[in-house]
Amino acid sequence: MAHFPKPSEGSWTEHFKIDTGPVSYADSISPEFYELERDAIFRRTWLNVGRVEQLPRKGSYFTKELDAARASVVVVRGTDGEVRAFHNVCRHRGNKLVWDDYPREETKGTCRAFTCKYHAWRYDLEGKLTFVQQESEFFGIDTSKYGLMQVQTEVWEGFIFVNLDPENTTPLKTYLGKFAQGIDGYPFHKLTQVHKYRAEIGSNWKLFIDAFAEFYHAPILHAGQYESGEAAKIKKYGYEALSYDIDGPHSMVSSWGGIAPPKEKAMVKPIERVLRSGLFGPWDAPDIGMTTEELPPAINPTRNEVWGMDSFVFFPNFMLLIWRPNWVLTYHYWPTSYNTHIFEGTCYFVPPENGFQRLQQELAAVTFKEYGLQDGNTLEATQTMLESRTVDQFPLCDQEVLLRHLHNTTQSYVREYQQRNAAAPTS
Amino acid sequence: MGNVFPPDFAALEPFADWAVRGERARYAKRVTSTMEELQAFYDVAYPLLQQNTEYLENLRLDGISKEDKHLLWAFCALVTVAFPVEAWGQPRVPDSGPSSIDAVIEPAV
User: Fold this and answer.
1) How far apart are CA B105 and CA B23, in angstroms?
2) Is the CB of residue A380 less than 8 Å away from at least one CB of chain B?
């Protein structure tokens, strides 16, 4: 039985003119395909590497490892207050410029200049080479030609993005399209209380996006998280989204309310009852300067009264979840090989005013983690069986439409990249 | 030796080892505890949380005392422990095998 209306075509998938046949997942089990994705996608698209709050002062910096793009960048706030990113490589002999103890681990801090550990070459916060050890030993070196290699950097609503393609001509806002435009004005800057989690996942990066871009699995995989009577009801009811939308490579799903607060308190676990919080966040929404009705138009796009959260997939690897009780969750998926990636999940809340609110937020964050642990291990199980190549035809339902879109988008980026390269004259 | 927790929470003193800073450390303690140990802590801490929501609502985080900080950490531990006790019936998340998700940034208090 349909609980929410579908487009006139009868399904979301057909509405978006997406093929309804089985999918193969060949794009998630091939080292060769992954090598193509690195160049076709991760070295060419805008990637979200952090938020402006991570750079509170002039000289604040952090590094980001972008293994899929074969790069490490250092993101820094300059003396002029501007946020810039540079390739994290010293121009003298190619040493990684900014790192602590372990070259592959990310780091952060505040400084007045970057000094290479190797021969003390020094760069200012704008990337200019300002000191060369024993400069007279070099052969008329023109220091103005040896500044750090700058990476295109733009900020949208406090989210810092980089694009590693020096030839990129698409501004960030154009790339992010209508969803970002319709989210503009959401008060992300008020949500500065951060809980961030990180996990190494044994699956292709797209499989975890798949897991979070459909909620068809929620009543089953996460049944243990509900009170048992409630779990049976939810399973029978199944899952239907309020709406789906697609814009270029990006997509979104708008979802009904879930449990914040529940209709009856008996539906939720005792800890949720006493703290008035859970997966959907604290039930008492903090003031963010706008009501649910006043949220920007891309959020709760159908203006449905039972709306609970929206989940945006910004291609390739950034998901933004906006929840009705005024908090935000982001997901990032950083590939490290065709069948491994690093997952980051970050909760953003309005800073708590008291100890009780602090505990409400702790419960929301920890619940997310418990769900994530279930999802993460399932992914490894899926990856190993896909790699067995026993089955290569998988039927996806209409509530899995965003998965089809993600895989189709990935394949078309790779195809276009191959065509461009084939057409280019070889010299 | 002085109290770990504020005087109203003396019943928690035998469980002072649950006043652990950081979700990562609290989770580590959970998964190396037995269900009996988790249940014993839950049985004392849960009613205290239930009876003292007003105390917590009046607890400002700026300039929080050492004892109140310990109390918040112990209740954060209760949040972590509630999952095995109320849902899983075992310390680990079912089917989570070797996978782990680690807190890398957390609030100062």
Assistant:
1) 10
2) yes
Smallest Cβ–Cβ distance between A271 and the set B86, B103, B105 belongs to B86
Mutation target vs B (from A230, A332, A356; most B CBs, 10 A cutoff)? A356
pTM of the shown model? 0.94
Do the interacting molecules here have an ipTM over 0.95? yes
- Interface contact B76, partner A, CB < 8 A: yes
What is the DSSP pairing of strand A243-247 with strand A122-123?
unpaired
Asked if B3 and B10 touch (Cβ cutoff 8 Å), the reply is yes
Considering only CB atoms, A197 lies closest to which of B64, B96, B103, namely B103
Q: Which pLDDT tens digit goes with each residue over A279-289?
A: 889 999 999 99
Q: Which of B75, B88, B101 sits opposite A199 (nearest CB)?
A: B101
Sheet with A250-256, edge to edge strand ranges: A243-247, A250-256, A307-314, A318-323, A327-337, A340-349, A193-201, B102-105
Q: Among A196, A358, A372, select the one facing B109 at the smallest CB separation.
A: A358
Which residue, A292, A263, A283, A270, is CA-closest to A360? Answer: A283
Q: Do B105 and A196 touch (CB under 8 A)?
A: yes
Query: Dihedral of CA A25/A333/A198/A336: which sign?
Result: positive
Question: Is residue A278 within 8 angstroms of chain B, CB to CB?
Answer: no
Which tokens is A268 given? 């939720």
pLDDT tens for each residue of chain A, 427 residues long: 467 889 999 999 999 999 999 999 999 999 999 999 999 999 999 999 999 999 999 999 999 999 999 999 999 999 999 999 999 999 999 999 999 988 889 999 999 999 999 999 999 999 999 999 999 999 999 999 999 999 999 999 999 999 999 999 999 999 999 999 999 999 999 999 999 999 999 999 999 999 888 887 777 766 666 667 777 777 777 788 999 999 999 999 999 876 667 777 777 899 999 999 998 899 999 999 999 999 999 999 999 998 999 999 999 999 999 999 999 999 999 999 999 999 999 999 999 999 999 999 999 999 999 988 888 888 989 999 999 999 999 999 999 999 999 999 999 999 999 999 888 776 5
Asked if the Cβ–Cβ distance from A359 to B56 is below 8 Å, we say yes
**Residues B95, A374: C-beta atoms closer than 8 Å:** yes
Chain A CB contacts of B88 under 8 Å are 224
Find the closest chain B residue to A106 by CA distance. Answer: B104
